[in-house]
Amino acid sequence: MTERAYKYRFYPTYEQENLLRRTIGCVRLVYNKALATRTFAWYEKQERIGYEQTSSLLTGWKKTSELDFLNEVSCVPLQQCLRHLQKAFANFWGKRAQYPRFKKKRNGGAAEFTKSAFKWKEGKLWLAKCKEPLNIVWSRYLPSDASPSTVTVKFEPSGRWYVSLLIDDQTIEKLPPTDKKVGIDVGISRLISTSDGEKIANPKHFNRLYQKLKRAQKILSRKTKGSNNRHKARRQLAKIHVKIKDARNDFLHKLTTRLVQENSLIAIEDLGVRNMVKNRKLARSISDAAWGEMFLLLEYKCEWYGRELVKIDRFYPSSKRCNHCGFVVEKLPLDVRIFDCPSCGTKGIDRDINAGKNILAAGLAVNVCGADVRPDNHSVKGQLRKTRTSRKKQKPRS
Fold first, then answer.
1. 100 phi-psi bin (left φ>0, alpha ψ -120 to 50, beta other)
2. What is the C-alpha separation between 166 and 115, in angstroms, rounded?
3. How far apart (Å, rounded) are the C-alpha atoms in residues 245 and 98?
4. Helices first, then strands: H and E counts in the chain
5. pTM of this prediction?
6. DSSP element (H, E) containing 211
7. Burial class, 272, CB count within 10 angstroms (exposed 0-12 / middle 13-18 / buried 19+)
8. 3-state secondary structure of 325
């Protein structure tokens, strides 16, 4: 069995939308108050507050006259947001994420319901304190014997409502084995270049709607803060962002599904995308390409369907190494897309296809013998610098 989330759009009634908006607002309030309390205790008193303490504080907040409205919504989403905050702090202390940030109303919000706060019967979903089931648009097949373990309701800035059902999906089956193996090199102009010579162009969804996005942003900046017209302009801007996101996700899902279906082993580079976007000249293009999201999709789809995903070291000189003789070119600027090997004399080497072949060869070596694929120090001087950076204290952004 595999845990899988099915996401659907739904259209709430006036009473449901009013209740859900209040629930999401209370979740945001409790999360922010708990974050502020934990931050103050740590930076001012050097005391660490955990989930148990914040849960006790929530009980006290409900008894005050200023926050007695917290009793009007289900208590389950409020407790769940405290668990999410605890997980965010665990990721921060484990150096896997930045310091938790305060939630903002303009970003929408979400509320998570466990089994005690919803009812699932005959394909219909009732949330706590809702008299009618949600009007869900069943856009794709849901297993008939599925029973959700958690339900997450999300409200997007564009005004759309979504519900996500987490179930144990027994319908996922391993794909039949295949002899094909592929190495993938990612880029900006070409999203991926494979070891078998296939090149897929980057759709650049952001650039396609950039001018429209720019005009909407300019209109928003002219509206008076707090006015209803500014709220409408923000909604129009959010709808353009949604179009970009939906097109990007649709393209990446179709691409990764095809790669997983056709190949038994996929080799990729373990890129530090978070560090790469610090380059202000390439940050927008890298973010639009969504390499990190593509790698994440490949990772869980390979796990679902019984494929192997191999990651090689990010410092491996896949582009500079000739796939015929193994010679590593000392310098290869980004504007040079085709080069000649000075060692074996091979001419017209496409750097992207060459990188894909080298990534596949390195991935096979890692898969077979567990080799640590790293470049040779003498041939790629300066690419193996290891710097130990101290993690500074990060304070939350208001």
1. beta
2. 11
3. 23
4. 10, 14
5. 0.83
6. helix 210-222
7. exposed
8. coil
Contacts (Cβ under 8 Å, ≥6 apart) of 91: 97
Nearest in space to 156 (alpha carbons), one of 228, 245, 85: 245
- Structure confidence by residue, pLDDT tens digits, 306-356: 999 999 888 888 888 888 888 888 888 888 888 888 888 788 888 888 888
Half-sphere exposure of 346 (CA within 13 A, CB side): 15
Catalytic residues: 185, 269, 352
Residue 90: phi, psi to the nearest 5? Answer: -65, -40
Environment class of 133 (CB within 10 Å of its CB; exposed 0-12, middle 13-18, buried 19+): middle
Residue tagged 């507050």 (tokens): 49
Please identify which residue in the block is written with the tokens 């205790």. 41
Amino acid sitting at position 87: K
d(CA 58, CA 80): 12
Give the pair of three-digit tokens for residue 34: 């708990």
Cβ(70)–Cβ(26) under 8 Å? yes
Helix (H) or strand (E) holding 285: helix 283-289
Burial (CB count within 10 angstroms: exposed 0-12, middle 13-18, buried 19+), residue 138? exposed
CA-based diameter of the chain, in Å?
Answer: 82
- Give the position of tokens 């449901």: 16
pLDDT digits over 44-98, tens only?
Answer: 888 889 999 999 999 999 999 999 999 999 999 999 999 999 999 999 999 888 9
Task: Report the SS3 class of residue 378.
Answer: coil
Give kind and range of the element (H or E) at residue 8. strand 2-10
Let me know: does 154 contact 161? Beta carbons within 8 Å.
Answer: yes
* Alpha carbon separation from 140 to 7, 17, 136, 137, 195 (Å, rounded): 9, 24, 11, 9, 34
The distance of Cα 194 from the centroid of its chain, to the nearest Å, equals 23
Rounded Cα gap, residues 337 and 349, in angstroms: 8
